[in-house]
UniProtKB/TrEMBL annotation:
It comes from the Archaea. InterPro entries: LolA/LolB/LppX. This is Lipoprotein.
Length: 254
């Protein structure tokens, strides 16, 4: 079995394409729903933000723990975004220009490549829902949702929500650019989403997605943590001309 690093990390970022989730009727606590609605209303007014992310992947097939980190910035007004993701010391970039995504292809032995893939951002989703904050809020819009009280993060009072998205919501985000199945024929054993909201402004401060998948007698656990910052600050994203010129339509070769 191939090392699960890229497969699992990609699945977390793309919200698990092609996976199945089993669950009972959802439990949605009133206080959590009220706070989530307030966060969604606030998110609709956002113009820009930056974020930092980190992820870890562990597999039962290996004692090795793989991690990665990245940064990104979003301009919701112009519909531009960019992300730098570093895994095993190699950094790859991506850009989004409205409904077109440009992804740096992996090179030899997983290193960076001079080639780029051009992919379409699904039009069935509102553009804001394709961004990190929009995706987290959408995932919590169905399935179980719980209110876990308040906590303090970096001296800031925050409200902690947790949830388990419904299969329909995961399927809705399973289509689109870059979707890949896990382990050939995977099952999601568990998936949880945690979201910490500023108690005063209802803006997201941090989110965490933890997913356990299994297949072929093996299990992998991935955790993606994102911290949001710099709301409303000036964010400029420009897709370099050479990236547009080199990008291969249909995405990177598989």
């Amino acid at each position: 079995m191939r090392r699960p690093t890229l497969h699992v990390a990609l699945a977390v970022c793309l919200v698990l394409a092609g996976c199945s989730v089993l669950g009972d009727d959802p439990v949605r606590e009133g206080a959590a729903v009220e706070r989530l609605d307030a966060a969604s209303e606030r998110a609709a007014t956002l113009e820009s933000y930056r974020y930092d992310l980190s992820f870890t992947v562990e597999s039962s097939a290996s004692s090795r723990r793989v991690g990665g980190s990245g940064t990104g910035r979003i301009n919701l007004t112009t519909r531009h975004a960019t992300t730098n993701l570093t895994v095993d010391g190699t950094t790859r970039r991506s850009y989004v220009d409205n409904r077109t995504a440009y992804v740096q292809c992996p090179g030899v032995a997983g290193g960076p490549s001079v080639f780029w893939g051009q992919e379409d951002v699904p039009t069935e989703h509102d553009w804001r829902e394709t961004t990190p904050i929009g995706r987290q809020l959408a995932m919590l819009s169905t399935g179980d949702l719980y209110y876990n009280g308040t906590e303090t993060i970096d001296g800031r009072e925050v409200v902690h929500l947790t949830g388990a998205p419904s299969k329909s919501e995961l399927d809705r985000y399973g289509a689109g650019a870059g979707s890949r199945p896990l382990f050939g024929s995977p099952n999601v054993d568990s998936l949880t989403v945690s979201l910490w909201l500023d108690e005063r402004t209802n803006r997201p401060v941090r989110s965490e997605v933890t997913v356990v998948v299994s297949g072929d007698g093996e299990t992998a656990t991935a955790t993606l943590t994102t911290r949001y910052r710099d709301y409303g600050e000036r964010v400029e994203v420009t897709v370099p001309a050479e990236v547009r010129e080199k990008a291969m339509r249909g995405g990177c070769p598989t």
